[in-house]
């Protein structure tokens, strides 16, 4: 069994995944931004559930927008259990509205949470994983970077950046035996607070210029829900089950990408084409060995500096 850190575990996919992985027998460190105050109820409910069900869940304070918090969280986990095997990057926030009506500062903050936050946690965790020569980075990305729906512009852009960082980081962690899996949920219209907690565009003057489109924005959530295949539960449980399945696979057999989509969007087809193009391009560059996790640690070869 593994020691696992999940970011953004207060609600939604992160919370559901924490419960599932604890039931699988893993030691789960559930990262929450403010477990002592704002997330206190979520922390208590998660811990109570673990006690009832017999799972090993430990809540850890983790604000992905602060490097010091990420460093402290990882240090706390290593001090507590001595091990960290898996990092699940799940923390994120949703913006809904007209792109122009979000200030540059608004969009910078969203990128800070949704993309740079994962990088901060990696900077805290990777020294340990590289030293051990094994581990898994699992990113909860989104199909939204392919489907690109309207009125979610800053969010779409931030998730694309998050996904690209996952791909490019994998080139550099694969040689050290650290695997990467990118799970891409489609629209999750139940069991999360994405839309209810979403940030709206703050520049009301600009937003008013787009008032003719307000009825379309108002039915965004309904329109998304209408795409769900009948008879399917579009909640976070399916994502948690897929993460559980992936983590149970042996080294080298974890999928680099996996889509959990309840809307039949065709993202799998796009992914397959993109995979072939990317792998062919990287191989032509002479870097094909960076595409798969290695069982052999790289050796350092440096020429001595001349006096």
Automatic annotation (TrEMBL):
Residues spanning the membrane:
none
Short name of one Pfam family for this protein? adh_short
Checking SUPFAM superfamilies in the record gives: NAD(P)-binding Rossmann-fold domains
What the entry lists under InterPro entries is as follows: NAD(P)-bd_dom_sf, SDR_fam, SDR_oxidoreductase
Signal peptide segment: none
- Record-given protein name: SDR family NAD(P)-dependent oxidoreductase
Species lineage: Bacteria, Bacillati, Actinomycetota, Actinomycetes, Pseudonocardiales
């Amino acid at each position: 069994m593994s020691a696992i850190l999940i970011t953004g575990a207060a609600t939604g996919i992160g919370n559901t995944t924490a419960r599932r992985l604890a039931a699988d027998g893993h030691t789960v460190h559930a990262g929450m931004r403010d477990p002592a105050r704002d997330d206190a109820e979520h922390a208590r409910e998660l811990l109570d559930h673990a006690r009832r069900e017999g799972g090993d869940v430990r809540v850890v304070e983790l604000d992905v927008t602060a490097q010091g918090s990420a460093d402290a969280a990882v240090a706390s986990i290593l001090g507590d259990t001595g091990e960290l095997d898996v990092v699940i990057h799940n923390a994120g926030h949703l913006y809904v509205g007209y792109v122009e009506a979000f200030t540059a500062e608004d969009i910078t903050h969203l990128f800070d949470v949704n993309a740079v936050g994962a990088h901060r946690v990696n900077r805290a965790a990777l020294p340990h994983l590289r030293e051990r020569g094994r581990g898994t980075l699992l990113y909860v990305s989104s199909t939204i970077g392919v489907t690109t729906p309207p009125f979610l512009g800053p969010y779409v852009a931030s998730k694309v950046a998050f996904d690209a960082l996952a791909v490019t980081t994998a080139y550099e962690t694969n040689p050290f035996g650290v695997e990467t899996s990118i799970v891409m949920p489609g629209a999750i219209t139940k069991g999360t607070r994405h839309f209810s907690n979403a940030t709206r565009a703050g520049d009301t003057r600009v937003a008013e210029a787009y008032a003719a489109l307000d009825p379309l924005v108002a039915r965004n959530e309904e329109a998304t829900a209408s795409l769900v295949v009948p008879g399917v539960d579009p909640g976070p449980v399916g994502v948690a089950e897929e993460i559980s399945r992936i983590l149970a696979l042996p080294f080298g057999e974890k999928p680099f990408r996996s889509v959990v989509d309840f809307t039949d969007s065709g993202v799998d087809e796009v992914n397959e084409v993109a995979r072939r193009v990317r792998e062919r391009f990287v191989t032509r560059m002479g870097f094909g060995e960076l595409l798969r996790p290695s069982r052999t640690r790289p050796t350092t070869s440096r020429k001595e500096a001349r006096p």
